[in-house]
Design goal:
Among the domains are: about 70 residues, RRM (RNA recognition motif) domain (Alpha-Beta Plaits, 2-Layer Sandwich); about 70 residues, no CATH class; about 110 residues, no CATH class. Helix content is about 35%, strand content about 15%. The chain has a five-stranded antiparallel sheet. The longest helix has about 35 residues. The two termini are about 65 Å apart. InterPro entries: Znf_CCHC (IPR001878), Znf_CCHC_sf (IPR036875). It comes from Plakobranchus ocellatus. This is RNA-directed DNA polymerase from mobile element jockey. One of its GO terms (molecular function) is zinc ion binding.
Length: about 450
């Protein structure tokens, strides 16, 4: 079996590192000389060169010809050097899902799939056992994974693999591990203070990253969402972390704000500013007029009525109730999002549906993304045999239930016309088994429907 990626996908070592063999560092030389040397070797004025923390230089190549030219050099500015690919930037990960690959081992997939250096099958725990799934994480020998891949006669879609942001378990900050942390003392993940661990902490949650009222490990933290968005962009487009941050951090701060949803709603409900005069506001403001005097003033100026104050309180109360209804979907999704992220290997975005059920009007369109894929919003959904609708009136379930029971009643009518089935006891047993069991199932849930909705089941009961 010969398996290869799509045509046009030609991986090459895009990020190369120039390391000096001796004590003299290449990065210590003049940047002008380094730039001229790059131009003489590669013949390109727009070469991207980055100085690493180790004193080495990393260059971003654009073609295989440049990679061959760079690999042929032994000295750089009279300094003996070695040229090697970057350890992490030249590879990428993608996720494929197929039941047809269930019988294939990880070694077979690495051997047969061209451009794949490693394969890892996702496993889920069921009790004490680990069960293999149809999801496989592939490591490609290219900075960016292909959109599709050929596996024998199959064509499989490849989704970028987005890892979770790295958080230090010592200082609770992101982008480094516990072994490389420079913090002298550990910090509590709950309150953000040192001197104790989380299990001994009873203080209120306080995040050390965004200063919010949640733990540093919360998956609804704005800092966590920012790092996750950066990793997603890097997985889909490639590049270094510096390039990705420069490209997307502005957009991230626009979409991920530390404001609460309620404060955003309140800002939208503010009254409009007063209109400017026709001259554009260039005229000087008029002086305040003096209050009228005498009996005429008392006659012209009406006394404030309590009814007017009550009228202003009613819209304010309605706006507050509307704000709560707008905030409810977002709070619900924020509580569900961490659970969905933990179970993203067992929850399928293809078969899952999002149903926001409320008997009051929905002012915001709820949205939930799982592993980067949006879950479609539906007006009704069937769950464990009960049809839920967005208004919770269960009219759809009653129609569905009536249709099922009528089929069983037709069977009873046929049996009732036979000699052996005309017995009353036999018909009652069949009714309890075929009809009453369907009515009883889920009655605790759909029994909350209004009487005129449940009245549709009267022909079934009688």
């Amino acid at each position: 079996m010969s398996v290869s990626p799509f045509a046009g996908w030609s991986p090459f070592k895009k990020f190369m590192v120039i390391s000096s063999k001796g004590s003299a560092k290449v990065a210590d030389r003049s940047p002008f000389k380094i730039h001229r040397e790059w131009r003489s070797i590669l013949g390109d004025k727009t070469i991207e060169v980055t100085k690493l923390g180790s004193g080495d230089l990393m260059v971003e190549l654009k073609s295989n010809d440049q990679a061959k030219k760079l690999g042929a050099i032994a000295t750089f500015l009279d300094i003996p050097v070695t040229v090697s690919p970057h350890k992490s930037l030249n590879s990428s990960k993608g996720v494929i899902r197929s039941r047809d690959l269930r019988c294939c081992s990880e070694e077979e997939m690495v051997e047969e799939l061209s451009g794949v250096t490693h394969a890892r099958r996702i496993k889920v725990r069921r009790g004490e056992d680990k069960i293999q799934t149809d999801t496989v994480v592939l490591t490609f020998d290219s900075p960016k994974p292909p959109s599709r891949i050929r596996a024998g006669y199959l064509t499989l879609d490849v989704r970028p693999h987005v890892p979770l942001p790295m958080r230090c378990y010592k200082c609770q900050r992101y982008n480094h591990g516990k072994d490389r942390c420079k913090k002298p003392a550990a910090v509590c993940v709950r309150c953000g203070k040192g001197g104790h661990v989380e299990r001994d902490c009873s203080a209120d949650p306080h995040c050390v990253n965004c200063k919010g009222d949640h733990t540093a490990s919360s998956k609804i933290c704005p800092k966590f969402l920012e790092e996750q968005a950066i990793l997603r962009y890097k997985a889909e487009n490639g590049g270094t972390f510096q390039q990705v941050r420069k490209a997307v951090v502005v957009e991230i701060h626009k979409t991920i704000s530390t404001r609460t949803f309620a404060s955003a709603v309140k800002s939208q409900l503010r009254t409009k500013p007063a209109a400017l005069p026709k001259d554009g506001g260039r005229s000087a403001p008029s002086a305040p007029s003096a209050p009228p005097k005498g009996k005429k003033a008392q006659k012209d100026s009406p006394a404030p009525s309590p009814q007017g104050a009550a009228e202003t309180e009613v819209p304010a109360k309605r706006r507050a109730e509307k704000s709560k209804r707008q905030e409810a979907p977002r709070e619900t999704l924020n509580r569900f999002a961490p659970l969905a992220m933990d179970a993203e290997d067992t929850i399928s975005t293809i078969t899952s549906k999002l149903l926001y059920a409320a008997r009051q009007r929905i002012y915001t369109e709820p949205a939930l993304h799982l592993d980067g894929q949006p879950i479609p919003v539906k007006g009704e959904a069937k769950f464990l045999g009960v049809v839920f609708d967005s208004k919770l009136n269960f009219s759809s379930h009653v129609k569905y239930l009536k249709k099922k029971c009528l089929k069983a009643l037709n069977l009873l009518r046929v049996v009732g016309h036979t000699d052996w089935g005309a017995d009353r006891g036999t018909l009652l047993k069949l009714y309890r088994t075929l009809v009453r069991s369907k009515l009883d199932y889920g009655s605790v849930i759909y029994g909350s429907a209004k009487k005129h909705v449940l009245r549709a089941l009267d022909p079934i009961h009688h």
